[in-house]
Amino acid sequence: MGGRLGRIEGLAIIIVAIVVTGVFMVMAPQTFLSDRIYATLLVTMAPLLLCALGLTLVIASGQIDLSFSSIVALSGFVLAAAYRFENIPFLAFLAEGSDAAAIEATRAWLIWVGAVLAVLAGAGAGWINGVLVARLGIPSIIATLATLFLWRGVAVVLAGGLSYNLRGVRDTALWQVTTGRLLDWLPLQALWVGLVAVGLWFILNRHRFGEALLFLGDNAEVARVMGIDVAATRIRLFTLMGALAGLAGVFLTAENITFYTNQGQGFLLLAMAAVFIGGTSIYGGSGSITGTVLGAYIVLVVQAGIVAAGVQGFWNDVVIGLIFIAAVVFHLSLERTERAGGSS
Amino acid sequence: MVEAPAVELRGITKRYGKVEALGGVDLEVGRNEILGLIGDNGAGKSTLIKILTGVERPTLGQMQIKGEPVDFGRYSVRGAHERGIETVYQQKSLGDKQPLWRNFFVGRNITNKWGFIDVRRQKELANEVLKGAIGFRGVGIDVDATAGNLSGGERQGICIGRAMHFDADLIILDEPTVALAVKEVGKVLSFIERIKASGRACLYVEHNLAHVHAMADRMVIIDRGRIVGEVRRGEMTVHELTEHFLDLQRRGERGAA
Q1: Which residue in B83, B113, B116 has the most chain A C-beta atoms within 10 A of its own C-beta, making it the best mutation to test that interface?
Q2: Tally of CB atoms within 10 A around B13
Q3: From edge to edge, which strands make up the β-sheet containing B170-174?
Q4: Which residues of A fall within a CB distance of 8 Å from B77?
Q5: ipTM surpasses cut 0.90
Q6: Domain map of chain A by residue range?
Q7: What CATH class has A3-337?
Q8: pLDDT tens digits for range A36-62
Q9: Subunit contact A225:B53, Cβ cutoff 8 A
Q10: Domain with B232 in it: what CATH number?
Q11: Coil, strand or helix: which one is B77?
Q12: Which residues from chain A sit within 8 angstroms of residue B96, using beta carbons?
């Protein structure tokens, strides 16, 4: 290995993404040679990628979070509740004595409060995950399996089991900012998520918090004796994951113009696939933001491409499964050769 | 005026529930002394190290660092680092998948005020230590190498170099030669000589008696959580030291029975 090319982060996954896209360009040229499919892909990718980026940090530090897909629903509900406040029992008082115009005026600013509270609710749920793991010592796979049920359950209970249609949300500034198009093409959510990705790259690779995560994933005992506050770092990590899932809930709900109680349910496995296809270490200690971005792209482009190429849709999971296995085998062999490398 | 010792322990006791790991240990390490701490597995060596380095708090007892008393309520790994105590643990001092420039500065990064790491500066400094203080010139190891690719002796060298870089006055070595090939042991012993030559103190914890005997200015023997003997350099041959050590252990067993 080594050399200049070997140093480009995620080079292998970049090649895979290009090859997969190329294959679909040949198999379904009408779709894949037009720019519309890519705009659609970016829209679908945005909330999934937010979760997958957070999950990259979680897995790089040797933990797992299964509950983020439920936090997406919890935060989506918070946003929907703010928008439909007159229909929500504990918010209805805000509408008392107002006429229709006044209610619309309240709605216009309340949705911003809702968006902020949605992210904070996600952060809060994540913080509780972190406390369960770091202070009570529950392994994260168990703690977040429990809160996978809990956070969605809370969302369903608060929503009374109902979906909320956000009709009219297109007229709000929030909708424009989250889901509008730049230059009539680039979905704004892709821009925001792209900025988050860049920010998280710097956090993971250039910030002492990111370094603490890497050392925790590598060997928590080393981190501890080198003076890293293990518990505090883990709590911060899960809080960040929750906030990102909360933001994903905001984007998803705005894009769908609906809150429904099982939203985000498909994200769990797709996000994990994106992270591992992207080359983040299964054992912790290293993570690739670039890889996760491309991993998320690959997972979704295969879904879109198989349909567009006229292959029956149920082949999708077969292809994803095969790419997943190939990627993991490849990354594992890379990790092993690196280890065997300089042991002379 | 006599300089206060690098570290001084008085009556250090540590209990885990009903189990007493340390029963009133008194210990001093002089400013430029290599003190060997000898003891069998479970004698209390690791507990003593953990207390010195702020990983654990004693149940009872006092500690002074360079003559200043330590408040255990506020003492931590960071506190120990700030007061010039650095530790090289057997296995858990380096993150295997991380490059050396990260391993050098983990927990003490050079950052801007927002906490972002100055990677270039860290690499420069790590490189200086690598080539200078621990003499890795021409071994083909650079600061981008991951720690997992180093040999056992080289790993100890990195840790000792790191400790010297951070101006440690006292470097604690926790069985640095365990599981090393003979050639690697030689490297580690030469690193210990560098510690002595640079005017620092060293607490050298070991159960290979020949290595301690060769390196230490003074040796104390710990058994069942108590200091049971002290031997100065040149007082005994390795063979006599071994006999003495075994004898003290046998006496301890009889006492316990």
Answers
A1: B116
A2: 16
A3: B85-88, B170-174, B201-206, B34-38, B218-223, B226-232
A4: 224-227
A5: no
A6: 3-337
A7: mainly alpha
A8: 889 889 999 999 999 999 999 999 999
A9: yes
A10: 3.40.50.300
A11: helix
A12: 218-219, 285, 339
